[in-house]
Amino acid sequence: QVQLVESGGGLVQAGGSLTLSCGVSGRTFSFSAMGWFRQALGKEREFVAAISWGGRIIKYTDSVQGRFTISRDNAKNTVTLQMNSLKPEDTAVYYCTGKTGAIEYDSSAYIYWGQGTQVTVSS
User: 28 falls in which pLDDT band (50, 70, 90)?
Assistant: First the structure.
């Protein structure tokens, strides 16, 4: 059994910051790539950021580049998304995910998902 649990979502004013955390537990192989996707109401789930096992490969979608920072602590089995300069268009449910192999941008390539945490940015 593998579980991913996100936390840290909430309501924030535009320009503010939030930090999302994802804790991973259960019996599984280590994930070579972990990341965050988000899904706004009425829209498809989209890639936000991903990080390789050792943290040397990091990818962001263009819309969050320079504002969001992804990191991971393998000893603690956690992945973090630091979100700064938040915009109303960042409003979505944010999901933590992991997979074997290389980072990919399609949500269908990832194996395990958390339940999601709501991020709402007011204007």
Answer: low
Residues β-bridged to residue 60: 49
Between CA 117 and CA 38 the distance in angstroms is 9
Tens-place pLDDT, residues 38-86? 999 999 999 999 999 999 999 999 999 999 999 999 889 999 999 999 9
Interatomic CA distance for residues 121 and 28, integer angstroms = 35
Tokens 């990341």 locate to 35
